[in-house]
Amino acid sequence: MCGIVGYAGTAPAQGTSLSANHRALEVIVEGLRRLEYRGYDSAGIAVAGANGIEMRKKSGKLAKLLEELEQNPLPAASSGIGHTRWATHGGPTDENAHPHVVDGGALSVVHNGIIENYSVLKATLLKRGHSFVSQTDTEVAATLLGDTYRELVLAEPGVPSTGRLSRAMAAVARQLEGAFTLVALHADEPGVIVAARRNSPLVVGLGDGENFLGSDVSGFIDYTRRAVELGQDQVVTISAENVEITDFNGVPAEGREYRVDWDAAAAKKDGYPSFMEKEINDQPDAVAQTLLGRTDGEGNLTLDELRVDPSVLKTINRIIVLACGTSAYAGQVARYAIEHWCRIPTEVELSHEFRYRDPIVDERTLIVSLSQSGETMDTLMAVRYAREQGAKTVAICNTNGSTIPRESDAVLYTHAGPEIAVASTKAFLAQITAAYLLGLYLAQLRGNLFQGQIKDILAELAKVPAKIASVLANADQIKDLARSMADTRTVLFLGRHVGYPVAMEGALKLKELAYIHAEGFAAGELKHGPIALIEEGQAVIVVVPSPRGRDSLHAKVVSNIQEVRARGAMTIVIAEEGDESVREHAEHVFYIPETSTLLAPLLTTVPLQIFALALATAKGFDVDQPRNLAKSVTVE
Ligand code: F6R
Prior knowledge:
Strand content: 15-25%
CATH topology of the largest domain: Glutamine Phosphoribosylpyrophosphate, subunit 1, domain 1
Bound molecules: fructose -6-phosphate
Distance between the termini: 11 Å
Number of helices: 18
Largest sheet: 8 strands, antiparallel
């Protein structure tokens, strides 16, 4: 979703050849480039120059804005704001792009989120004689901020402008409903950027003689690793030398400083043609890093970050996993393991459905949220709701300092490293790994498994990274097949037990990356309806469980393959090495290394990701930024 960058600096240090103008622009453009992964459809920049605010904005990709800046350069400035917009109110046009400049050119504002009461505010502003050039809620907030600022000017005759923009911002923020990060730059205080946040992300970067704002740390990761978390309902004012935080009533507040533990290089492509390909290849590391340091010298799980009183965890009688999209599929995989190991009833619910159905939650319910970004608004709201009902909340998250872990009772970080491609890959495997660690920890604490059993599972988990590496090393066959299927219009995915969410994830990747109709089904459900879709040549990808697994699951899935094949389907099978029984039923078989049933999703998912990537690449699509999608979904 929208990306925001703010920069307040002075002239560059001696020895640099950059002018102050170039420093501000360089930082903002680089920040916007880094935030491109969030997904956007227009971009803009405003700076406070000698003659007031100057702004350039363009619909389309950043390249369009850069062309505009070539033709129409911005003037020298030491501070500015930048924005990449993911359209909500009003289409992706030049007019609707941010920044919005109001108040006769004195004030410029960028925004992420949705202001829910914007139509009421707009009606009031129209009555006051304002007119609007865009369809956005942002222009309404900007106009209100402009009015509020001028009211303060009138109310404070002779008082210097210092701090006025912060006070005006706080007063406006109090009137807004919904989710917003608003960032403003005023011609009267050109070295100052003021931002307010509610339910929408914003991080401060601390530099040396310069300070930064970003929707996330990638907005300034090239310049500093020192970051400050903002709390809910806070206003922050940055200048070259200062960072001041208050609440919406102007009461000073403290932000928590932390060090960004990944570096800029980790967010680069490392020679891969896309972030997506790099991140798929990062997966052995993502799982290994997530497992690292979670046990004591005797092999007992410790999970240091998990700060829920063990006596409370012993008494929980229900787990609800809250997540969206790929993260929800990770939750569905984890449910099989957690119920099996801990014997605690576990449900997985899409966050956006959860709080609207009046769910039954109490202090014996453990909420486990799964979120790569830690900013997904649907999940954040669901977690808040559950906390209000007395539930304990644990976040499994990949982004240090993000909102969901901050608002949860405990956090278990996945250490997948920054995930830049919009469609999630390595975070999925890392989430499953972390959720399994949580399941094993609960089983250890509650005595559901013997210590030896836990050690065996951990030992098997430790072997997974090498097995993923072997899947990656033997991916040519699946890539070739995917390329040969570039004209395919629909693909069905089947799986059973843990293979079912894997099938749904495989289908989601194909939809997102290759814009092909794809559906994931529980293989057993096929005969209850979806089998009607099968016709001659229909591609069906089947995730087959290990033949060593229990309850004749393998035999049942093989029967399902036969059923679709008998009706003309072209079957592609993901099976365990050595499983020769599937060969006669499949046009194509891809083998993954042996592992236990519960750990298999960490391997079976990988060929499906590679399939979607190769097919989308063959179709010439941008796999890092698929159309219409945003990385971090910060609106409900
Ligand atoms: C799909 C994808 C999304 C996210 C979902 C939740 O490839 O990336 O479905 O999984 O938007 O995002 P997080 O995990 O950041 O809460």
